[in-house]
Design brief:
about 400 residues; mainly alpha; I/LWEQ domain; about 75% helix; disordered N terminus; membrane
Length: about 400
Amino acid sequence: MTPPAPARSPYRLAPMRPRDPHEPGRTASSLELFFDLVFVVAVSLAAVQLHHALTEAHVAAGVLSYAMVFFAIWWAWMNFTWFATSFDTDDWLYRVLTIVQMSGVLVLASGVEAAFVAHDFTVVIAGYLVMRVAMIAQWLRAAGHAGSSRRACQTYAVGIGVVQLLWLSLLVLPASVVTIAFVVLVAAELAVPVVAERRGLTPWHPHHITERFGLFTLILLGESLLASANAVIEALHDEAALGPLLSVAALALIVTAALWWIYFWPPHHTAITSLRGSLRYGYVHYFVFAAAGAFSAGIEVEVDVLSHHSKLSEVAASFTVTVPIAIFVLGIWWIALRQHADRVVNVVVPAGAVLVLLDPVIPIPITLTAVIMIVVVVVLVLRPPVGGDRAGAIASP
């Protein structure tokens, strides 16, 4: 028997009650998928600017700017994702506030170039504040019907609001202390869910959450393929050598496919059955997502080296590819894979990541990277997840 639809207010709004964390058949909504696409615009622009910085040999400054911009992107995305799994009503106000957050992403994206080139984060912070203020409104609305989660919702709203006021202070601080202040504010942002959830857990749907993370990972990996294809096409216009370019394109395809295989090998939902596990899963994904975005930049840097448009040496350029690969693999191994792996897999996967990281000092780094990733995938095929169905794990996160 179909349960009755929740009563709506005269304004055609549904009570924002907590969703059932065991709701059968819960999947990502079309609004959530639309939301992800807007974030990918910001990620793509950040990766492009990272590529330019690395090509000009501004490695430290480029990586720092990328880490700062990517935090704003990732944190706003993750906060919405965890909120949606608990309180998505899909009524008009929920949709409008979500679209407001999307507008903030576009504002942030428009300020990415200035953040990298002039270290001016004014527009990035403005876009971030738009996203976060909309999130405060969502939490305040949820607090009205949250039941045992009411105090958590209120803590989220207050905590986010206080930290946003502190972000504004970043605009008037001297440049010499901006980085330190940024680290302090990041710690404050990360502390809000820890404090809030201890005052009354919000209900999260493990399968829905991990599907959302998996879908965003797929989009980021797709960016790597697109970036490599565009870089090769551009290089061909300059009459660069075809053979080396094709080898980079092949590397991009093989590694991207291997990263997909590794990510979806274990069932992810078992990693978020507790608050501690959920925090670890969500927070480590910052490095996983950032690495996926940086991998596309690294591929473009490799192409620039081959077409003699980069100030980096060949060894340094190789590191721009291997470091993101290693971070991605080690991140997924730590938060999801190792608990479903036997001893062999738990040796091969992290060892493979370390070997890839050391590839640039080998005379044939591109070929060796591809071979190592293929070997890791072969081991995963031969040794299915412990306590999980291999086919099911590959089909969904």
